[in-house]
């Protein structure tokens, strides 16, 4: 049972980053970015390229990956989403699906379909109080905590963070008060892309890299974000941890390949009963 | 019918009919009803499997098809109930989640669905009536007849008071609700009818290939349906019909490009094609948001335009 909790928290930690990325762009733009899964994939493969082909150490390669996906996310917003912002929300959803399709296959074009792994030394698992803790799980824990702290600090203590919260709360009031929407939106996409890319690296570390990886995580990412309350970024982190635990505990009585069905069942129940999430404020659009 | 060109033409036309049906279903759900179905391929897959498995279980092909349509319709209604009270963003993720779950279920529950082995030997309706030489032509005629019926029905639906209600709900659900109509009931019916058409499209897929396995059903089907609706113009059934023909001809025709570029292998080519579809989707939404077709104008809208 203790081992299950450790594994569940690891899954949840990995999910926390893209769920936060999704909730971040949603809270500021009220737009659910379906391309988030392909950002995860892109980040993982750019990192793989820097790590295996350029021979950089993984932490530096992850930096390259996060920076390139952050730039790509800003560019995609500038080229595609920005022009659709004034249209109905549905148009943006469909456009993000198109972006997702293009990015995922761009990765497939260069990397092919076979699974890959990062170039890292294999280490023996650590043992604490009878629980196995892999080296990778420690790396995941430290990375996620560090990334969350940075995002929290930006959100809480910087002008940028205050501007983001202002736009999330009331866009027209924020505009009246002279907050430059364009810059804030670019910053949001940059953060969102970097977080998604980091998640891709961690997933690759935990399992393996394949072009399908981001797509497979799309449903859990959305479930985690909705579980926390999709309009409140930090609550999405809590949602991710709850979902990770629930998925892991479900393997006690369901075969492990049905984790996705567990995520779907949780999301369905939640949408019928508490659509504003476990931790979110009672906020709902119809 | 030994002529390979004729055989190729018939095969292409069968694919056109199937994609058109998927496009028309999405046009009803998204184009007219404003309900985004990102899990389109899941409902299509459900239709194909219900039909295929019932035929294997000894049911007549037509009865199996009717059951598949009914089952897909009911499941669509149930799935849409999960999030129908919320904004459309939620329906998009719910349908996507449903589709992935259906695919998992079918891939792993071997006892029911034969899993990754697939279901083979699905007999077509009226198979053997004219002898095996004419099998493909007969099936094409049958598919065209089905398409004709669906097209006529949804054209009637679009022109009916219920069609107006659907479009009004898409444009402003609050106004419809304030006029005493149940937005929930309108959306539910719209999504269910779309689901029934997807069940039909899936059944035709199962008949046409006579063998189905989980790898045939991917989000690419969803992407093609969205392409058809975006090119054809949301709400325009004729536009979607023409767009589907053009789309399939382009996609099928692009196969021949492989011969001209020796460096391209099938895998690279498939990726390039999907990149093009993804980019085209975004570019069309930006440059030509209402597509090339036109939604049938309502009487009031027409008189406003003239005045």
Key terms for this structure?
heterodimer, A: 286 residues, mainly alpha, ABC transporter involved in vitamin B12 uptake, BtuC, two-stranded antiparallel sheet, 74% helix, B: 307 residues, two-stranded antiparallel ribbon, 1% strand, globular
Give an account of the 3D structure.
- The complex is a heterodimer of chains A (286) and B (307).
- Chain A is mainly α and 286 residues long.
- Chain A has a single domain, classed as ABC transporter involved in vitamin B12 uptake, BtuC.
- Chain A has helices spanning 2-29, 36-53, 58-84, 89-111, 135-157, 159-169, 171-176, 181-206, 213-228, 233-250, 259-273; strands at 126-128, 131-133.
- A two-stranded antiparallel sheet of chain A has the order 1-2.
- In chain A, a hairpin with a 2-residue loop joins strand 1 and strand 2.
- In chain A, helix 2 (36-53) packs parallel to helix 4, helix 2 (36-53) crosses helix 8 (181-206) and helix 3 runs antiparallel to helix 4.
- The N and C termini of chain A lie far apart (40 Å).
- Chain B is mostly helical and 307 residues long.
- Chain B has a domain at 4-217.
- Helices cover 74% and strands 1% of the residues of chain B.
- Chain B is built from 14 helices and 2 strands; from the N terminus they run H-H-H-H-H-E-H-H-H-H-E-H-H-H-H-H.
- Chain B has a two-stranded antiparallel ribbon with strand order 1-2.
What quaternary form is this? heterodimer
Rg of chain A, nearest Å: 18 Å
Mean pLDDT of chain A: 87
Q: Name the helix and strand elements of chain B from N-terminus to C-terminus, one letter apiece.
A: HHHHHEHHHHEHHHHH
What is the helix/strand order of chain A? HHHHEEHHHHHHH
Helix count, DSSP H or I runs of 4 or more residues of chain A:
11
The main sheet of chain B comes to: 2 strands, antiparallel
Class of secondary structure makeup of chain A: mainly alpha
The largest sheet of chain A is: 2 strands, antiparallel
- Shape assignment of chain A: globular
Radius of gyration of chain B: 20 Å
User: Unreliable stretches of chain A, pLDDT < 50, 5 or more residues?
Assistant: none
**Separation, N- and C-terminal Cα atoms of chain B:** 57 Å
Low-confidence stretches of chain B: none
């Amino acid at each position: 049972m203790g081992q299950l909790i450790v594994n569940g928290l690891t899954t949840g930690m990995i999910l926390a980053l893209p769920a936060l990325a999704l909730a971040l762009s949603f809270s500021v733009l009220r737009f659910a970015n379906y391309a988030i899964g392909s950002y995860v994939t892109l980040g993982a493969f750019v990192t793989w390229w820097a790590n295996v082909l350029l021979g950089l150490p993984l932490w530096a390669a992850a930096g390259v990956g996060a920076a390139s996906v952050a730039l790509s996310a800003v560019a995609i917003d500038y080229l595609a989403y920005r022009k659709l912002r004034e249209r109905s929300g549905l148009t943006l959803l469909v456009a993000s699906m198109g972006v997702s399709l293009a990015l995922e296959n761009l990765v497939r074009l260069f990397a092919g379909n076979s699974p890959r792994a990062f170039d890292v030394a294999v280490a023996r698992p650590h043992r604490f109080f009878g629980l196995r803790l892999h080296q990778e799980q420690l790396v995941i824990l430290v990375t996620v905590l560090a990334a969350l702290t940075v995002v929290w600090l930006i959100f809480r203590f910087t002008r940028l963070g205050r501007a983001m919260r202002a736009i999330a709360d009331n866009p027209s009031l924020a505009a009246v008060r002279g907050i430059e929407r364009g810059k804030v939106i670019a910053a949001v996409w940059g953060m969102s892309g970097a977080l998604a890319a980091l998640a891709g690296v961690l997933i690759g570390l935990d399992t393996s890299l394949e072009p399908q990886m981001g797509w497979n995580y799309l449903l859990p990412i959305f479930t985690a974000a909705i579980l926390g309350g999709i309009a409140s970024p930090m609550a999405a982190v809590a949602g991710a941890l709850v979902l990770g635990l629930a998925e892991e505990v479900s393997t006690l009585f369901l075969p492990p390949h049905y984790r996705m069905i567990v995520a779907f069942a949780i999301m369905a129940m939640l949408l019928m009963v508490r659509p504003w999430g476990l931790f979110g404020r009672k906020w709902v659009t119809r | 019918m030994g002529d390979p060109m004729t055989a190729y033409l018939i095969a292409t036309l069968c694919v056109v009919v199937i994609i058109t049906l998927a496009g028309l279903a999405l046009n009803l759900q998204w184009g007219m009803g404003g309900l985004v179905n990102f899990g389109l391929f899941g409902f299509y897959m459900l239709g194909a499997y219900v039909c295929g498995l019932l035929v294997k279980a000894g049911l007549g092909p037509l009865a199996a098809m009717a059951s598949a349509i009914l089952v897909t319709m009911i499941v669509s209604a149930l799935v849409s109930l999960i999030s129908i009270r919320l904004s459309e963003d939620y329906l998009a993720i719910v349908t996507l989640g449903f589709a992935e779950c259906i695919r998992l279920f079918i891939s792993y529950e071997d006892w029911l669905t034969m899993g990754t082995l697939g279901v083979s030997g699905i007999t077509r309706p009226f198979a053997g009536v004219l002898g095996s030489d004419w099998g493909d032509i007969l099936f094409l005629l049958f598919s065209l007849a089905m398409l004709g019926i669906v097209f006529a029905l949804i054209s009637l639906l679009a022109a009916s008071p219920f069609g107006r209600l659907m479009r009004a709900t898409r444009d402003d659900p609050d106004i419809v609700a304030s006029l005493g109509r149940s937005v929930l009931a309108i959306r539910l019916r719209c999504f269910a009818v779309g689901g029934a058409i997807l069940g039909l499209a899936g059944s035709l897929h199962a008949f046409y290939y006579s063998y189905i396995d989980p790898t045939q059903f991917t989000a690419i089907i969803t992407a093609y349906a969205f392409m058809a609706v975006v090119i054809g113009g949301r709400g325009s059934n004729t536009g979607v019909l023409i767009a589907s023909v053009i789309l399939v001809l382009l996609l099928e025709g692009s196969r021949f490009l492989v011969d001209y570029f020796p460096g391209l292998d099938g895998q690279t080519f498939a990726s390039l094609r999907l990149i093009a579809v993804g980019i085209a989707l975004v570019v069309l939404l930006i440059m030509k948001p209402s597509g090339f077709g036109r939604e049938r104008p309502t009487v009031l809208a027409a008189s406003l335009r003239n005045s």
